[in-house]
Amino acid sequence: MAEITAQAVNEFRKTTGLGLMECKALLKEADGDVKKALTLAKEKHGKNAENRAGRATTAGRVEVYIHHDGKSGGLVEVNCETDFVARNDAFRALAKDLALQVVAANPTCVRREEMPADQVEEQKRIFIAQAADKPENVREKIAEGKLNAWYEEKVLLEQKFVKDGAQSIKDMILAVNARTGENITVSRFARFVIGEGTTAAAE
Questions:
Q1: DSSP 3-state assignment of 56?
Q2: CA R_g for the chain
Q3: Measured between alpha carbons, how far is 81 from 1 in angstroms, rounded to an integer?
Q4: Is 0.90 surpassed by the pTM of this model?
């Protein structure tokens, strides 16, 4: 079995936000393989998150991010179960990162179930048409794969974090979920850009 050093545990903790003992246990279980340990952590905390998913999230915070040029900004409502966690540094940092994500990545909705059905159907038609030279059963699979990639671009929870493309927004939320022991959800967001939604005055 590979030796699990203190440095490896600390690095894994920085990546996942989990406690030292849990990081050490996961690395031991993965025989020092960081990628395998990350997979184990996601599986474990994904299941824990599912168990917490039905719990009410009536606390939280509204976070704002304004781009340095002052021409774009975003608001996001992130919810948790208690005011105690809403004041937690990890939770507040998550909310700030989510507000940044809204401005930088311009998502359409929080989760794929909220995507307008007409947009989904239109994209699927486009992807099927792009594979018109393929057999029908293959066209459907190609379209499905492209549709999933499209969701990853448009749906906030499925987007890759703009500051770290190795993790999705959902992964980030699960990590804070694990650290706080509470159900954490994103309710809504808004993005503002100077000039959008207005008509320039005629010269």
A1: coil
A2: 20
A3: 40
A4: no
What is the per-residue pLDDT across 26-78, written as a single tens digit (0 to 9) for each? 889 989 888 888 788 767 755 554 555 567 678 999 999 999 999 999 999 99
Structure tokens at 56: 């009410």
Alpha helices for 17-135 (secondary structure H): 20-29, 34-52, 83-86, 89-105, 117-130
Report H helices in 30-76.
Answer: 34-52
* Tokens 């976070």 found at: 63
User: CA-CA distance, 57 to 103, in Å (whole number)?
Assistant: 24
**Contact between residue 17 and residue 178 where contact means Cβ atoms under 8 Å apart:** yes
Q: Can you list the domains of the chain with their CATH numbers?
A: 6-53 (1.10.8.10), 59-111+155-193 (3.30.479.20), 116-153 (1.10.286.20)
